[in-house]
């Protein structure tokens, strides 16, 4: 996943006050950031557990449980950000984690 500036837009609940964004230099870094966000949530929910494991379905459920998540990825050819939905994010996460597992 090439070095394409990626912004993850996220809203954790129905409240507009929970809207936020995360800014990354590449799609790969953005996928790491989403995994890190989920892992921090798991650690907050399970503070006494030393080693936390999860599978892709758990990560997908986390993403689906958010009020909204989307990505803006810079296209150098168009000189513009292109929008992508949470389904695209889930596909990129799968590809990213599969690559890391090899």
Automatic annotation (TrEMBL):
SUPFAM superfamilies: ERH-like. Keywords: Cell cycle. The keyword Cell cycle applies. Pfam families: ER. Transmembrane segments: none annotated. Gene3D superfamilies: Enhancer of rudimentary (3.30.2260.10). Belongs to the E(R) family. May have a role in the cell cycle. This is Enhancer of rudimentary homolog. The lineage of its organism: Eukaryota, Viridiplantae, Streptophyta, Embryophyta, Tracheophyta.
